[in-house]
Amino acid sequence: MEENSLRLILLLVGIVILMGIYFYDVLQKKKNDEVEELNMPDRDERVEPVMNGESAFSAVFEDQQEASSVGQAEPEVLNADEAAPEVEQEDIPVAEQAPVIQLAVLSREGTVLSGTALLDGFTRLNLEFGDMGIFHRYERQDGVEVQQFHVANILEPGTFPVGSMADFESTGIVLFFQANDAVNPEEAFENMLDVALQLSQSFDARLVDSEMNELMPDKITRIQAQLANLKH
Fold it and tell me: Where does 100-229 sit in CATH, by number?
């Protein structure tokens, strides 16, 4: 009997708590709606959308963001005696982010890259599985091991199930590195290009640049020139 009474009490307490939460949410929502109505801008006021023009794969891109223009309020008219002195504004230098160099190896239409073939190719070309669930090429200098470039799955989330590669398939891989992360960016690119070429030949796949166009000699030359200019 006591157990039944205790269960009934707990049930009633639970119902009271749920009703309290419900009415609290209703009051809170009503309060938020009132605040939003007060802060709501005029309907005639136009808000410009923020656009991101970066491409999905940008092999020689520099993350440069253009400052968007913000509407300025009408300046207050001052009398001649109240005119404020002009203050020279110094240009504030903006640090440029180092470019990310990217290449991609894509399977041809109607085909895929099998996980077993990928793993064999990665192993043969000294690519090691590591951080973030992707593969890396390492360079070792004076006993210190540094990641030279990276290889990710082109399909989200970009990782490889290294423990079950026999059941894995993909339509492509992306090879990339950020120029300021490499000890020698030019050497890193040459090694990455060599690996990409060998993988594309092994898989009978397409080797493309950051814009998903066939990688041409002139694009390779531009990337090399860009990396060489980073030294200056």
Answer: 3.30.1400.10
